[in-house]
Amino acid sequence: MQPGIQNGVRVTYNVPSIMRDGTVLHANVYQPDDGGTGSYPVLLTRMPYGKDLPAGVSALLPEQAARRGYIVVVQDVRGTGASEGDWSPLLHEAQDGFDTVAWAAQLPGADGRVGMYGVSYFGFTQWAAASQHPPALRAIAPMQTWNDLDAPDAGVLWRNGVLELGASVGWALEMGFDQMVRRYRGNAEAMGRAIYGLAREVDALPTSGYGELPLASFGPLARTGLDAPNRIFIAARDEADVVAAGRIARAYELELPVLHIGGWYDLFLGGTLRNFQEMRNRGHQRQWLVIGPWTHGNVNRVQGDLDFGFASSGALMDLRIDLMSLQIQFFDYALKGLATTFAEMPVVKYFVMGANVWKTSKSWPPEGATVAHWYLHSAGHANTASGDGQLSNEQPADEVTDSFTYDPANPVPTVGGATLLPSVLRPGPRDQRVVEQRHDVLVYTSAPLEQPLEVTGAVSAALYVASDAPDTDFVARLVDVYPDGMAITVTDGIVRMRHRNGMEAREEPLEAGTFYRIEVDLWATSLVFLPGHRIRLDVTSSSFPRWERNLNTGMDSAAATEMRTARQSLAHDAEHPSYLALPIMA
Ligand code: BEZ
């Protein structure tokens, strides 16, 4: 037997734990089969995706962790799988998390120290537990998860006030399957009918479902008969208790070792970076950040239309370590105090796309970048990739404004990016050429680069825009154009004009014909634009179904069904120097 690695693992299914209100949650517990002689830290994950299903072993293989000297607890959260109670997304995770950590720390054979791990929702359950400061919680490894529910820039549901329609509806429907199984247990016919109904709605989302209005009583969710709480991902804006339950910021007060894991094409990239930065800003030193070229829940080498190479994959990152072993080494270091190679782990390890190499740094963003402004230019016809839009480092002088008509009845389709949509709408680095043929997409492209240009850090666009509608949206997207014309999306962002002064400020309708300077936050990337490639910025007013459409009326977006077209203008002249801001690494 290898030292420190147990051969036998004992699994106990459906181990109960009683929450403070008497609700019983169930977990599978994996532990070294040592005849009860040892004492071990606990690795806990709390998920709504079924502890007995493949998701239960997706983030980390419990037997393997148990063989390495841990008690691993995989728990169904309240109202899901084998646990009691009603499923109400987010609402109970902070308190149940606190109670479960305390319970897990006292399991037979536990040494009193608890670490948590998991992806996405079960990344959130780590932050939610940490927000309650459970004394036994000593380390967490959240992967691809969000920050405060109502954070303006990077929450799970909204981006600067715009609903992440695609992800939230798809997710709410998929969560419905477990709910229907629980509701109709013992009545096979009713269960079959309910599941068939759900499946039909899921299948119809890309073709018709996403387009339904009003959002407040969204048809695909309403028709399934899901309980109201399952619909919060549409309506949570108005649910103060859910918004409060979705705030995790109290966790930032804890001096807690955290391994933050993210993906450049993950819809929670913004939240992952924010959580890392908030912890570091508070002086917590034991923070590590790993970002691969990954999409949500997918750490393979091929993403979207690109192959980033074997070393990019979570199976053997940088040809050194797989993602599961990295997490175990982190816990060995943070929970057991072992001098593993994790002691030499750089603070930040990120994958540079294009060059397809991993780099390290002491901070995020890495030091040493200078921000370059790439100004938008055209002779007034930047519409489509065949238009006259250009990007250069020269400031504009007298130039003609570009314009397009945005029709919410015919929105610009989402093609890839940091999305979580039904699988027919694949995420990741995908070719935008179909989208760039549309007249409602303004396209600004640089000359071919002579030298490689590494962009690493936060990306944004400052745009001077006008509309004849009282409210509308602007979407900006950074694109890497290959010598053969392939146009790969890198990262994007959206501004809802009524929120242009920030989510804290009063909503203000637009005055027709007035140009407003907006800053579109495109989150971040790390990418080398290779010689012969061109830098491109696409500007439009929708990306559907990723984001809810702005109906251009200024009415409440949840209740509205009426829509109108909007005539949009983008200025780029001496007085209105619109530009793309890129952090360039020397
Ligand atoms: C997830 O766990 O993957 C998830 C949760 C909420 C919204 C979207 C995705």
Bound ligands? benzoic acid
Radius of gyration: 24 Å
The CATH architecture term of the largest domain is 3-Layer(aba) Sandwich
Q: Helix share of residues? A: 10-25%
**Principal-axes shape call:** globular
CATH superfamily of the largest domain, please? Answer: Alpha/Beta hydrolase fold, catalytic domain
Largest sheet: 10 strands, mixed
| Mean pLDDT across residues | 95
CATH class of the largest domain: Alpha Beta
Structure description:
Helix content is 18%, strand content 30%. The protein has helices spanning 62-67, 93-105, 121-130, 165-183, 188-204, 219-222, 232-235, 240-245, 269-281, 323-334, and strands at residues 9-18, 24-32, 40-47, 71-76, 110-119, 137-143, 158-159, 162-163, 258-265, 287-295, 302-303, 306-307, 348-352, 357-361, 369-377, 390-392, 402-406, 442-445, 453-467, 473-481, 487-496, 516-529, 534-540, 566-571, 579-585. It has three domains: 9-143 and 248-300 and 309-352, Rossmann fold (3-Layer(aba) Sandwich); 163-231; 369-585, Jelly Rolls, CATH 2.60.120.260. The chain has a ten-stranded mixed sheet with strand order 1-2-4-3-5-6-9-10-13-14, sandwiched between helices. Strands 15, 16, 17, 19, 22, 24 and 25 form a seven-stranded antiparallel sheet that branches. Helix 2 (93-105) crosses helix 3 (121-130) and helix 4 packs antiparallel against helix 5. Strand 20 (473-481) and strand 21 form a beta hairpin. It has 586 residues and is an alpha+beta fold. It is globular, with a radius of gyration of 24 Å. The structure holds benzoic acid. Benzoic acid is lined by residues 120-121, 156, 167, 171, 420. The site of benzoic acid (BEZ) has 6 residues, from helix 4.
